[in-house]
Every structure is written in C-alpha cells, then in structure tokens.
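User: Just a sanity check before I run the rest of the batch. Below are the structure tokens for the first item. I only need the designed sequence back.
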C-alpha cells in the first residue's frame, strides 16, 4: 500500500486508521498488462461526500482491452455499509487513460420490504476506497486488476436521528384502536428537516407514511411527532423503521423499534343471577358473572376494573369491580408485574333499580327475562411511562342476557268499589335464564301497604305457572276530588321462588268509595204549594262530598214507578237544597249513580209527604132570604173527576158542621150545589174526600147573612 499523506491536524488519527488498514485486500491474479490506480481524490486528504467523482488511471498492454472501471467505498468499521460506482472504459483507452467513476455516498436507497435490511448510506468517518478494472484479451479471456486499498474520510454531513423519550416505549403494547405514537428528534447539519419517513413491518409492509419536520429549536433540533393507525393489525410483534431527511434530501441512519400490538381486551357476560336484596349483601339485587380475556403473555397485562351497566343505563354502573383479589386470580412476578391466566371469571354485584313500596323505597331483585348488559372491562397494559401515566386498554361488549326467575302479570277487573266489587287477576310465570333453569314458584301473597293480607297461596310441585284472583272490595276507598293520593291503594303482590329469591309487583288500584245519601222533605203540604228538599252525600267515614251528581226522585202513592224530579250536584258542603211543587201524596228519595274512578252508587231511605187537596169555594152570596136556594161552587186541585166533596154549613157561633150535600167533581174537578138557609148568619165550606192521590182538603169558610 502506498503511504498516505499526513496533515498535521489529523496525524495521530490517520496513523491509527492506517494501522487498522495496512493489510491490502486479496485480489485475483492480474496480468501485468492491466492496472488501476486512483489518482483523485488524493487519498487521506480529500473528503468524499454525496456524488463524488473518482478518477481511476487505467493502463493496458497491447492485446488487452479494458471495459469497465468500478470504485467501492466501504465504511472502515462496518464492512456491510458500502457504496460503489461503475463507468465504461473508452474504447480508445490504449495504452492508458483516466476514467471518472461517480460514487454516490449519501443518497437514500430504499431497503424495500425487508425490516431487517441494513443501512446503505455511508456513515461520516473513515472508509476504504478501492478501484477495480475489468478487461478482455484477444483470445476472449477476462482479466481484472485492482488498485491498492486507500484510507479516505467521508463527510456526508447527514442529519442525525434518535427516538424521543416516548419512543423508548414503542416496544411496550399498543392496544386496540390506540395509534402507534411516533416521536423522534432530528438534528440536521445544513438545511432544515424535511420529513421523517416511517414503515411498519409485520409479515409484510403494513403501513408506510411520512411526517413533516418542524422548525428547529434552540438546540438546533426538530421534534417530529405523529401517529400510525393500527387498523387491521392483529395481535403480534411488528418492526417500525424510521429514516429522516433534511432539506437537501440527505437521509439519516435507519432506526428501528420493536412494536407489540394487542388487539384489545375482551369481556362477556355469562349469566345474571338474581338475589333478594338484604343489608348483608349491600342491598344489591343480583350478580353478573363475567369472563374477561387477559392480554398476551409477552407483556404485563393485568385486569384493573369491570363495570356493568343494565338496560341502556350509561350514567352510573349497575355494578363495579374496581380491584381484583390478586390472590384469587393472579400471581406477582419478581419484576413487580401481575401475571394472570388468559381468562378470568369475576362476579360483579349489581345495584338494581329502586322500587316504591307505598311508604318506603327498596331495591328489587333483578327482573326475570332478557336484559341489555354492557360490560366495560379495563386492563392495565404496562407500567407507568416516562410521564408517570399508566397505560390501560378498555373493552366494551353489549349483549342480551336472560336472568332466570318469576314474572308477574296483573289485571284489575273493575270498577273497584269499597264494599261492593272489583278483583285483581294475576299470573306468575317462571322463566329460564342463560345457563340457568327455570325455578319453581313456592309461595305468594297480596296485601295493601301496611295492611292485612288480602289473599295468599303456596305451591309444592309443577309450579312453573300460578294463576289467581283476589277480591278487592275490602279495600278502603276515598273520593279523588278530596284526597287524590288516598284514592289509589297500592297492593303489593309478593312471590318467592325455589332459588329463594323474593320479588314484588305493586299495583296501584283506584278504589271508589262507598257513599251514602240522605234527604229531608216536608211530611205534609197542600197540593200546588212549593216546598224545599235538602239532599246530602257523604262517605262512610262521614266525610261530606262536594260536586257529586245526585238525583231527586218521587213516586205517587199507589204507584211503583220512580220519576226523577231534578238532577244536580252537591255544593261545597256536600249538600244541596232544591224547590219542588207538591201535587200528590208521594214518596221521595235521592239516588247517587256509580261513577267509575270517583264513587260508588247509593240510594237514600224513602220519605213520605202527605199532600192535601186544594179546595177553592165560591158562589155563596154575602146576604140572602130565608127559604131561597143559593148556589155553592168549588174547584179541586189536583183535578180529578168523580171525587166526592161535602158541602157543610154551621150556624155562626156554633162548633158543629153539618153536611147538607155530597156532589162529585166533574172532569174539570168542579162541583156545584144549591143550599137553602134559615134565617140567621151561616158559615159555609167545602171538604174534599181523601183519596190515594191526595189527602182530604178543606176550602176557606164563606159567610151568608139570611133575613
């Protein structure tokens, strides 16, 4: 090897490097007729960078034709990193000539789809440079000659790339839809940072893209960040390759990171187990049995929390397991990570909806039948990162899961009237659940809140369905216009199954109160006169009821037909006073009709009014002559034909009346008779006979003075 020129500033370094490269490369035997020598750049002084022109002096003896010259530049400390250039030797090259070979030491050569491909660009620093010339002889044989291996210095001034602190953790899991976070620092020597290219490899290239560079900071660095989507990735190991480019297109060295991707945790609800809420179990009404799938073994996955939501509830969970009993599920490795099996089964207590039992609230066992169950399972996916944040992954699954148990359907057959009518029909039906058989129905009872049991029953075999009818007429009623709350009576149906779960169903039943009505009427009167009748309506507890429709009815003596005289409503006092015109002897009563949702029916006792006929006498003169006949006329009300009347007279000052004639009324209710008087002063009256329709009536007294 030819000795290198030495510059004073680099003497020591070059001496060391020269020592490392004193052994010349082994070359094929070369005929003396062909030789190669690098003449430019001057070895040891010139710096190779980018598109470097290398001049090779080629000599060839007669009969040898050089065809191509190749220059190889190889990093001194990394033989895998080498760049070459080849040029054709001019046909006029005889016996010697200079051939310029261009060697690109810096531009980017894409390694393709091989994630393990090494760096191709030459690093800054020392390299060896060697020229090779190929040629042919006249006989057609190939010959080759190589120059000596020269020590040179490469100064590509390429940007430097190293991952940001966050990127140290790309070897930790990336989970589910979380993207792969990219963070890298780039320090350019010349122009600014243009971009950072990234390629994600699995079995093949899974993603390729670039992220723009940013302005340089005070340390002359560009922090490039971005994210790579994980769509379509499956759980496994991946390689992420980075290379940065400055504004002149110079690439940095390749940096790779191992990425482990986990498609995410899984959770499912196996079954729902109802239970009777008690103080001992925290008033929870069931248990959700959940199976969670834990992350792969190659990373420290561990369950953290399970939330269960029922029937579309998203505001607060029906049940939560915030921590897991590690002794039951996981072991702790010396590194401090929890090591768990691939699947874990947990039981999550469920807080069921609150129901109202009349005067108190309590939890209800989980209702039998299908429930929409959402399970949110959170998993710890590694230790805290450099910012102190714990890494977690969450899985949400929503499925329809049936709970075993008994359901109740009820029908109120009404109207329900206190002391009168109404029934509650019910059917109890047992249902099977997911992986749970249908329980047997063991007992039931129905009772108003805080009151005695209305009915009850038991079942000992073949009890998957029970039906019954409960009488409701013993329920107390109340008028809704007075106290609406008490018009409704909560009746709770309580039933227990063979699993020991007691459920309830409360039916709010509107009970119409039993009422009573009364009236007051004159016991006597005169036909045609106006009288007043007072009617009242009240509950059995003597509460007067306002606004109740009430009817006044009458029937004449001797008749069986009731006739409504007037219909009205009670006033605010619960009573009402109405005028009536008396006509006949009559019976009176008030009637309250049943109004579903308001009150039951009621009829008062019958009261009798004795009505005297109205007799109007006329025709008697005030004076007369003894022995002459004078007329006496009378009109009766109510009008009736054939009714006998007595025409009576008495001497003034005496007490005894004497009937002188008994005519009958005509069709107009009129009578006419002639009376002969003796000398003196006489009083005259007309008395109608009593009949079924009306009592006897007497006219006013008329006076005649006879001379």
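Assistant: Here's the designed sequence for the first item:
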């Amino acid at each position: 090897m030819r000795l290198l020129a030495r510059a004073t500033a680099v003497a020591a370094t070059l001496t060391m490097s020269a020592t490392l490269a004193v052994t010349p490369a082994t070359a094929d035997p070369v005929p003396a007729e062909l030789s190669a020598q690098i003449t430019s750049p001057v070895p040891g002084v010139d710096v190779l960078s980018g598109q470097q022109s290398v001049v090779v002096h080629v000599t060839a003896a007669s009969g040898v034709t050089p065809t191509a010259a190749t220059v190889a530049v190889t990093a001194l400390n990394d033989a895998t990193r080498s760049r070459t250039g080849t040029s054709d030797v001019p046909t006029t090259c005889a016996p010697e000539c200079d051939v310029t070979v261009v060697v690109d030491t810096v531009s980017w050569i894409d390694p393709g789809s091989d994630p393990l491909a090494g760096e191709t660009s030459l690093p800054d620093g020392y390299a060896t440079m060697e020229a090779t010339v190929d040629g042919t002889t006249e006989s057609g044989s190939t010959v080759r000659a190589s120059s000596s291996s020269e020590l040179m210095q490469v100064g590509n001034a390429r940007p430097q790339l190293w991952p940001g602190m966050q990127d140290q953790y790309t070897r930790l899991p990336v989970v589910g839809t979380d993207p792969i976070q990219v963070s890298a620092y780039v320090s350019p020597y010349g122009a600014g940072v243009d971009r950072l290219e990234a390629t994600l490899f699995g079995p093949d290239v899974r993603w390729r893209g670039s992220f723009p560079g940013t302005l340089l900071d005070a340390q002359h660095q560009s922090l490039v960040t971005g994210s790579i989507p994980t769509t379509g990735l499956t759980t496994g190991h991946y390689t992420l390759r980075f290379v940065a480019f400055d504004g002149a297109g110079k690439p940095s060295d390749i940096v790779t990171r191992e990425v482990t991707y986990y498609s995410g945790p899984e959770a499912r609800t196996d079954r729902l187990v109802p239970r009777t809420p008690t103080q001992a179990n925290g008033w929870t009404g069931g248990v959700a049995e959940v199976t969670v799938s834990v992350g792969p073994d190659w990373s420290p996955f561990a369950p953290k929390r399970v939330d269960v939501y029922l029937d579309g509830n998203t505001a607060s969970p029906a049940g939560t397991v915030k921590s897991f009993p590690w002794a039951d599920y996981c072991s702790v490795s010396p590194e401090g990570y929890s090591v768990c099996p691939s699947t874990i089964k947990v039981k999550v207590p469920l807080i069921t909806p609150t129901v109202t039992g009349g005067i108190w609230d309590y939890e209800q066992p989980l209702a039998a039948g299908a429930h929409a169950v959402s399970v949110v399972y959170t998993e710890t996916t590694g230790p805290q990162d450099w910012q102190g944040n714990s890494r977690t992954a969450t899985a949400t699954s929503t499925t329809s899961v049936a709970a075993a148990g008994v359901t109740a359907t009820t029908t109120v057959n009404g109207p329900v009237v206190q002391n009168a009518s109404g029934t509650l029909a019910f059917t109890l039906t047992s249902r099977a659940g997911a992986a749970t058989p249908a329980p047997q129905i063991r007992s039931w009872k129905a009772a108003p809140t805080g009151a005695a049991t209305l009915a009850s029953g038991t079942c000992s075999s073949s009890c998957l369905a029970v039906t019954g009818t409960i009488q409701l007429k013993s329920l107390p009623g109340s008028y809704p216009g007075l106290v609406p709350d008490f018009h409704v009576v909560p009746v709770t149906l309580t039933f227990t199954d063979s699993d020991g779960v007691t459920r309830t169903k409360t039916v709010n039943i509107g009970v119409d109160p039993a009422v009573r009505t009364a009236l007051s009427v004159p016991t006597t009167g005169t036909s045609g006169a106006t009288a007043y009748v007072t009617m009242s309506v009240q509950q059995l507890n003597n509460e007067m009821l306002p606004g109740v429709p009430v009817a006044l009815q009458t029937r004449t003596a001797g008749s069986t037909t009731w006739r409504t005289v007037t219909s009205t409503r009670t006033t605010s006092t619960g009573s009402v006073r109405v005028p009536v015109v008396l006509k006949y002897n009559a019976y009176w009563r008030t009637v309250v009709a049943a109004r579903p949702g308001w009150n039951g029916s009621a009829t008062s006792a019958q009261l009798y009014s004795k009505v005297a006929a109205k007799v109007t006498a006329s025709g008697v003169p005030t004076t007369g002559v003894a022995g002459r006949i004078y007329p006496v006329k009378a009109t009766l009300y109510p009008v009736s034909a054939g009714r006998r009347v007595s025409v009576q007279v008495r001497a003034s000052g005496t007490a005894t009346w004497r009937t002188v004639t008994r005519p009958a009324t005509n069709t107009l209710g009129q009578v006419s008779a002639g009376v002969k008087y003796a000398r003196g002063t006489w009083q005259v009256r007309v008395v109608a006979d009593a009949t079924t329709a009306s009592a006897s009536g007497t006219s006013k007294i008329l006076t005649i003075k006879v001379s």
